[in-house]
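URGENT: need a sanity check before tomorrow's submission.

F., can you look over the Clustered mitochondria protein homolog record below? I want to be sure the sequence and structure line up before it goes out.
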Amino acid sequence: MVNGDGAHEHTEEAETKQDGTAEADGGEESNEQEVIVIQDTGFTVKIQAPGTEPFDLQVSPQEMVQEIHQVLMDREDTCHRTCFSLQLDGNVLDNFAELKSIEGLQEGSLLKVVEEPYTVREARIHVRHIRDLLKSLDPSDAYNGVDCNSLSFLSIFTDGDLGDSGKRKKKGNELEQIDCTPPEHILPGSKERPLVPLQPQNKDWKPMQCLKVLTMSGWNPPPGNRKMHGDLMYLYIVTVEERHVSVTASTRGFYLNQSTTYTFNPKPANPSFLSHSLVELLSQISPAFKKNFHCPAKEKRHPFERIATPFQVYSWTAPQVDHAMDCVRAEDAYTSRLGYEEHIPGQTRDWNEELQTTRELPRKNLPERLLRERAIFKVHSDFAAAATRGAMAVIDGNVMAINPGEETRMQMFIWNNIFFSLGFDVRDHYRELGGDAAAHAAPTNDLNGVRAYGAVDVEGLYTLGTVVVDYRGYRVTAQSIIPGILEREQEQSVIYGSIDFGKTVVSHSKYLELLEKTSRPLKVQRHNVLNEKNDSVELCSSVECKGIIGNDGRHYILDLLRTFPPDLNFLPVDGEELPLESQRQGFPRQHRHRLACLRQELIEAFVEHRYLLFMKMAALQLMQQKVSTDKPATTQNGECKSPLEGKELEESIPGLAQAKELAETLVAEDGSDPKSREVVLNACKAVGSISNTSFDIRFNPDIFSPGVRFPDDSADDVQKQKQLLKDAAAFLVSCQIPSLVKDCLDHSALPMDGATLTEALHQRGINVRYLGTVLEFVDKTPAKAQLEHFYRIGISELITRCAKHIFKTYLQGVELSALSAAVSHFLNCFLSSFPDAVAHLPPDELVSRRKSRKRRNRVPGSGDNTAWASLTPSELWKNIASEAQSYYHFTIQCESVDQVVEKYNLQKTTLLREISVKTGIQILIKEYNFDSRHKPAFTEEDILNIFPVVKHVNPKASDAFHFFQSGQAKVQQGFLKEGCELINEALNLFNNVYGPMHVEICACLRLLARLNYIMGDHPEALSNQQKAVLMSERVLGIEHPNTIQEYMHLALYCFANGQLSTALKLLYRARYLMLLVCGEDHPEMALLDSNIGLVLHGVMEYDLSLRFLENALTINTKYHGPRSLKVALSHHLVARVYESKAEFRSALQHEKEGYTIYKNQMGEAHEKTKESSEYLKYLTQQAVALQRTMNEIYKNGSNASIMPLKFTAPSMASVLEQLNIINGIIFIPLSQKDLENLKAEVQRRQQLQELGKNEEPTEDSPLELEDKIPID
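Structure tokens as predicted:
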């Protein structure tokens, strides 16, 4: 059964386990996928392959024949076939036909698999496929970052698949068998942060034991006379038994020939073992091959461990992997073609045509939109992969420039129908705007523009495929090519916009009409500018945005770097004053370039904020009209500029809510009543709306652009726009930054590393260049101690970003042959305590290079190639400090890494991870001694690779996302059943568009698992959460904060399913990862340690349990304040363990603390307070009973009559109950009446939260099922 996942070559692997050979897990795997959105129902066909029994396959009418091919290549008994056709009643089916279009194909039809003659192309595909099967268990592709493979380690901690082991009933003695002690470095308080456990060795990852060598033979290609006998190519194979054979691939199949290494004899050997598949041939000549070869479908591994991800994920650490001979890899390297591109006639793909054609697909109904979005997503991910390969080839010097005569910085390249340019300021294009710094920033701005226009998705308006790749210190922009653009001069082709930043400007009616449609969603104002003849020209974008009609007749827009308005905080303009809020923070500040613009998220937030202000204004005026019929209706509040005044007004006036409703109806009216018209007009003026009759805020992106002039008649308008930009800049500083800090204080934002911090900033529209400002703000916050984790992550991010900027220019001067030496030297200067790190120059190589230097000007790197070797640690840290000052306007007073680590309490492993991830370095996984003062930490052997860092557009699955959101909304209202159905539906649609692997599917699975769990279906929760963990590891990375969260959820469901040892292993893994990523001092660590402590309590490891729970108590007290309900709960958990140890005095002490907090926060009457008081009574009784017994023993010695004391191990149910409380889960019996009560309860809790300052004992308000990716 394949859910119409067309166009995705590898998607079906997850769903094809329908047949009898599937694992126990297979059934579960497919059930949730059964609901096919598209209304046509599926049907079953029979498939008969040579030498196997016929089997049934569920198909849907939308699928293509090709998808059945894919299923067969993934099935165990047919996985070695690639060259076959499917026939119905002797007619060959067209591979690209949809099943519904095939005559006579119906329920129960028999499709025959017929072996077809090979061609050279088919033979190559076959050999590649066999090699992929042989390599499927080998992780080297994941370490090398190729073919969309990535790592996953979950199965090591769950011992294979969770599905089966969950079914075993546990015997009474299960508790004794668990070894619960974690390794030393995981215990609270441990200071060592080892690196090796990050990638535990998987015993299943054996190197290929089927064959020693499989490569192309040196006798290729076949000579003419052999071609006429049907020889296609020759292979050279060494079996495990050391048998060397030469194989002919012919049109009829594969057979042994009589050639040896030095003599060519193409005649068939005797016997020749002619077989249609290479696997059949090898099974006959090598017993070891026959024994060891099996299809990956048979593996115990979860399919999610090997399905390709949509975009490549790179690992920053890797073990030393043996380099094995590999014919297919070798051949790929020598042909400039891309891996699987052989599928397409004409060899290279016309990327522009593919990208634009998919946009033009119809989108009237759901099935059409799904097909369209799937096609768009597929082409985008293919394009990103091709562009990345091309960019690396360009920088590595393997592509000829199209202007080879120019100096290297100015060269441009075309490879595989993609245009590549380097991020340097060539021909002084950006001289006014900041030279190279502007040329470096422009591509990412442009990409943001492409993303924004792509999301608006206006029919008839086209953007270029754009990917920005940072590799070896260079920034490369890859773009698809507009048809015909290379044949003509740019001057002739641009019919809209300006090619010289606004000196000459042209416009075009068709472009205005198309861009008008984007004006409202992107908040871009139509405006007039003057051209060189002083004529007024109308535009609906910035002047740089150029319109070109391609030879294909499509309207393209490019150079979208100023889609969003400029950020005045970083753009000092003579004679312009910023609002006070900005000035107080030291703005405007000089930036490296003049292209700093506001983020789209900020624009949205600002407009939203202004809309609320607008409503308040209108409401206030209405009230004044009501009140003051005697006074004339003036608008003394008309100038409500500062956001604070707005708030105060709201509190001071009764009846504002009714007035607001009135205002809403009034805004919706057509404005016929003059009084209401005046109200709207005043409110519009006050908030800077561009219309006088309704709320409408848009920005003119050309304001403050050097070189752009506006006609005199729009002077007022321009003035208004300037004010709006100043207000937006002030809004960022006065509203968005404080709201981010507030969210961190109440833990609704919990960044754990640089990436999640950046994401938290971006979600609120704050650019990373504000990082210094944010940190200063935190520094001045009264509750600074509760933001220590945030401050530390911010400092580490700021330092590693400064180091990245320096590393970029450092690498540009390095020859390829010295790359590993240079990288290791840089890391030594950055992280090693060794004071005089010396670079090792490879002497002999450099000498010979020197002579040939004159001729080689291919690679963009130039300048003295050994300058990098003179860098010293103190110089690097001086540079980092000055970079922090000049870029982030933040002062770091530190001369060395050790001072920084000391002063800001950072970890060197964390810094290493951050710098490696940001720059694409891959290092050998081993324990590094950073603190040795006698030898440097890194040698050049420790640097394994340098990867590209890639930015691209992520096309969205819009329908799926709406389903997902409405599902979430339903769940939050307490309608779990409906919510669950909607989210299942969303999962289906996501699968349809993205294939099985994607971050959004991950969020979907996590939420589903949580719902399954709340509704009491533990096995289903386990199955969904297992997929979420695997997917998070594969798509985000094995130590991404999101993955850590997923591990925690999975541990909870494992515990509930009675798999205690697995739950502990998962929690220990999560703790290890968290220590590595952000250290122990983080609010989330308290939750993790509470989880670990509870599970240990449940398995009666009391002392160990206390270590974790007491650590959680310390962290909770620090980050939530000593009076928080979280702290009360922590005290209670600790007390329970002391009770189990019969140390009643300590238990009482902790429970009293908890009781006091409950009493003060919730009052005497609250159930929590009562529970706590009951527990105190019970503890006191126990303590008294124990004392009596002890006294009895002292008095009467050994013949005392001893009362049996109750020392109870906690029941699993009680431990689980506490686990659910700390993880913010409440259970819901699902009757209608209960649901009514639940909704009342949710409302009650919300009111409580307002009173108790958000300090409910649950994690989030209980039903806010964490949905934000990736920060919960």
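My own read: Residues 247 and 256 are 5 Å apart (CA to CA). The chain is about 45% helix and 10% strand. If you see anything odd, call me.
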